[in-house]
Design a protein that fits this description.
This protein has about 190 residues and is an alpha/beta fold. The protein has seven helices and five strands; from the N terminus they run E-E-E-H-E-H-E-H-H-H-H-H. Helix 1 runs parallel beside helix 2. The relative contact order is 0.19.
Amino acid sequence: MDTKRRILGIDPGTQMIGWGVVDVEGGKPRFCQMGVISLKGEKDHFAKLGRIFNEIGGLVHRFSPNEFAIESPFYGKNVQSMLKLGRAQGIAIAAALNAGLPVYEYAPRKIKQSITGKGAASKEQVSSVICAILSVKELPEALDATDGLAAALCHFLSGDVHISIRKHEKGARQTNKERGWEAFLKNNPGRIK
């Protein structure tokens, strides 16, 4: 029985979109790839939306994920910025749904909490911990890439869908004690220093 999963994580934006791909095999996450999509050259907002749809579709075609995790927009005071960010996120979700992927959305605080243990962690802290967990040798130039990777890893660590191979073969979900960050640390001794 093939239990391998591939998760595409997205950190949506109107200037830069971070993305990361995590493979899960044997109940353990493994770094596959990460990067950014720069939208800074696009002046027209609707052209950006079209490009987001095409770029996300291209990532789905290139990596063939079977799960899609995306960071939800954070609350901001500028209504126009929030509207544009929400549109960008919606278009990314539409591209995933168009490809038949299940979509999972996580609040920024939830992602930071699941990765670092602190909901108010900085981008640099998230990036550092992500690289340690997934044994990524080199930090990316743009931390948006590790933010995309963080969305994918948060999804893996989420108790909603994480199923171990042993339990999967029996058709049962994990218990609460077997889920989340504590389970990852228990099952991956020596990965975090």
